[in-house]
Amino acid sequence: MIKVTPEIKKAIEGALQLEIEGRQFFLAAAEATSHEKGKKMFKWLADEEVKHMEIFSQLFSEVLGNEDWRSQIQYQEKGEELPLVKKLKERISQTKGKQEVEALSIGIELEQRAIQLFEEAARQSLDPKAREIFTKIVEEEKFHYDLLQAQRDSLTKSGYWLDSSEFKMDGLF
């Protein structure tokens, strides 16, 4: 049986737990959204989190050489709602009329935190296998971040730079 170092164990558990939390959050966001297209998008994102868990599982098996890691890892796949998700649902409920945008903003924040966490873990890792896992996870999380940012920009009709200054910052018009 392959030895799973503490760094590798942390990478695997962290990645899987982030995806589980993400799935729960996006399902909650779908419930909070009144617009049908918004519901569909958030459900799709929840399904993507499941796919990412499968990708991570395959990645870990490839990097570690087999599937023995599964017997050494603990994570919560099913069960009651996670505390972080409860907190985020409360935040969404306080933004009446703007739940979709708030949910996207929260998703972006979660992805930013995940990117920072895994980039730092990769920098500090002395184990080449752990560093490889952390680096690949960062790539996945950056992709999630870009998708959420593009959707939020679309909904808020923002994300565009002006070609020239159309206003003065000193308050004089």
Short description:
This protein has helices at residues 6-32, 36-64, 83-93, 99-124, 128-156.
Descriptors:
71% helix, mainly alpha, Ferritin, 173 residues, 5 helices
CATH topology: the name is Ferritin
Computed CA radius of gyration, to the nearest angstrom? 19 Å
**Element-by-element helix/strand order:** HHHHH
Number of helices: 5
For CATH, the homologous superfamily is named as Ferritin, core subunit, four-helix bundle
* Strand residues, percent: under 5%
Oligomer: single chain
Summarize the structure in words:
With 173 residues, the chain is mainly α. It has a single domain, classed as Ferritin (Up-down Bundle), CATH 1.20.1260. The chain has helices at residues 6-32, 36-64, 83-93, 99-124, 128-156. Helix 1 (6-32) runs antiparallel to helix 4 (99-124) and helix 4 (99-124) packs antiparallel against helix 5.
What does the secondary structure layout of this molecule look like, with pairings?
Elements: H1 6-32, H2 36-64, H3 83-93, H4 99-124, H5 128-156
